[in-house]
């Protein structure tokens, strides 16, 4: 079941929520910001039951 994780867009700075499926394990993917539509690099780390998310611009 996906969980909502809060983050901030690295381009526009707006608060966003990302749907993360912890059962899928750690992952890296590109997702467009729902506010400014720019592509963000999303890195999800799942260790035990803890989820951490890092969001970066495409050129970082």
Structural class: mainly beta
Q: Helicity range of the residues? A: under 10%
Task: Specify the biggest β-sheet.
Answer: 3 strands, antiparallel
> How many individual β-strands?
5
Q: Bin the strand percentage.
A: over 45%
Question: If you compute it from the alpha carbons, what radius of gyration comes out, rounded to the nearest whole angstrom?
Answer: 11 Å
The general outline is: globular
Order of the strands making up the biggest sheet: 3-4-5
What is the terminal-to-terminal distance?
30 Å
Secondary-structure element pattern, one letter each = EEEEE
Low-confidence region ranges: none
Q: How many distinct folded domains?
A: 1
Mean pLDDT: 92
How many helical elements?
Answer: 0
Task: Summarize the SSE layout with pairings.
Blueprint: E1 3-8, E2 15-20, E3 27-32, E4 39-47, E5 50-56
Antiparallel strand pairs: 1-2, 3-4, 4-5
Description:
With 60 residues, the protein is an all-beta fold. The chain has one domain. Helix content is 0%, strand content 57%. It contains no helices and 5 strands. It has strands at residues 3-8, 15-20, 27-32, 39-47, 50-56. A 3-stranded antiparallel beta sheet has the order 3-4-5, with no helix packed on it.
What are the main properties of this structure?
60 residues; mainly beta; three-stranded antiparallel sheet; two-stranded antiparallel sheet; 0% helix; 57% strand
State the gist of this model.
With 60 residues, this protein is an all-beta fold. It is built from no helices and 5 strands.
